[in-house]
Amino acid sequence: MPAPLDFYFDFSSPYGYFASREIEGLAARHGRTVVWRPILLGAVFKVTGQGPLLLQPLRGPYATRDLERTARLLKAPFRLPTVFPVNALAASRAFYWLHDRDPAKARTFARAAFDAIFGRGEDLGSAPPVVALAKARGLAGDELAAALEEPAVKARLKDAVDAAVAAGVFGSPFVVVDGEPFWGHDRFAQIDRWLSTGGW
Amino acid sequence: MPAPLDFYFDFSSPYGYFASREIEGLAARHGRTVVWRPILLGAVFKVTGQGPLLLQPLRGPYATRDLERTARLLKAPFRLPTVFPVNALAASRAFYWLHDRDPAKARTFARAAFDAIFGRGEDLGSAPPVVALAKARGLAGDELAAALEEPAVKARLKDAVDAAVAAGVFGSPFVVVDGEPFWGHDRFAQIDRWLSTGGW
């Protein structure tokens, strides 16, 4: 049984959104599964000295153009949320809470959350809309709202982010295939090839 | 006659090296020509707050791995120069001096300089090796050494960099196709498609 792909992403990352639409199909074509691993890039930015791409001079306006152009090419619905950068804390905590109960539900939630944030430009930056989304999809009930405030749930996310940073993850999307790291949606073609050939 | 592609690059940029090997073929497949435009990213970094990618925490080590992996995939000779970041001043000045006499010679020089810097890892960070390279290829004689110290030649490069920054260029490679900007070697597939379809 070949190892699953590790798919790291930040819910505030628009290129992570593109990746979230493709990663399962990409893996399945090669008989692989995917472990979804949301992280918070804010913790990484302290190490790399970076900040949110869309807020950077020159690079931000270009990235907006590149995102809209790439979305059209992929025929992916795309709308930048009006509240930016996105606060990914509640969505990320909800993901791991769901994951520890049912990884399939957590994946469904992650896809739905990304579609809400970048497909429709909704503000998912706090607990109420996150809980509402999970409830609307039948993934959780009111217990999720309480869970998002629990220290153990907060610690679960923090530990996941710390482990990712310790593993060298510094961007979104970031995919590790049999130990080989690939950063960026623009490397998905290389991932596809790597999975075909076992490397080069 | 369709407009040429504007190909901006920094001689210190390894992804610019990959681009330099492909841009003419890419343009020619679509009946286009290329205007080569070396810039100095140091001037851009003052605006974007960035620094050389390979010197950044986490991102630098990953980029080295990505470069070597991508070079193997492209079957491109690749060796990072031991002196890094590369000082691109002399090579860039030499380019524009050649360009104002014979653009074809300047392109030949640019390809040769990139091959020296990133194909063989040579230090081209000062005037003597730059002049030697141009002389060895029959592109210039000893007059180039004197030219590299002329205020007018220095100003020619500075003006080119200022014009690029004013035009929104902030990375290497950076290609403008009929007004549409594309940043990064990883966007060459999109450029190819854009040239085929006229956009999407």
Can you characterise this structure?
Two copies of one chain form a homodimer. Chain A is an alpha+beta fold. The first copy, chain A, has a single domain, classed as Glutaredoxin. In chain A, 55% of the residues lie in helices and 9% in strands. Chain A contains nine helices and four strands, in the order βαβαααααααββα. The first copy, chain A, has helices at 14-29, 41-48, 59-74, 89-99, 103-119, 127-136, 143-147, 151-166, 188-197, and strands at residues 5-9, 34-38, 174-177, 180-183. In chain A, strand 1 (5-9), helix 1 and strand 2 form a beta-alpha-beta unit. In chain A, helix 1 (14-29) runs parallel beside helix 9 (188-197). The longest helix of chain A has 17 residues, at 103-119. The first copy, chain A, starts with a strand and ends with a helix. In chain A, 40% of the residues are buried. The mean pLDDT of chain A is 95. The A-B interface holds A 44, 47-50, 56-59, 61-62, 65-66, 69-70, 72-73, 168, 170-171, 181, 183-184, 186-187, 189-190, 193, 200 and B 44, 47-50, 56-59, 61-62, 65-66, 69-70, 72-73, 168, 170-171, 181, 183-184, 186-187, 189-190, 193, 200.
Shape of chain A: globular
Order of helices and strands of chain A: EHEHHHHHHHEEH
According to CATH, what is the class of chain A? Answer: Alpha Beta
Radius of gyration of chain A over all CA atoms, rounded = 16 Å
Which residues of chain A sit in consecutive blocks of at least 5 with pLDDT less than 50? Answer: none
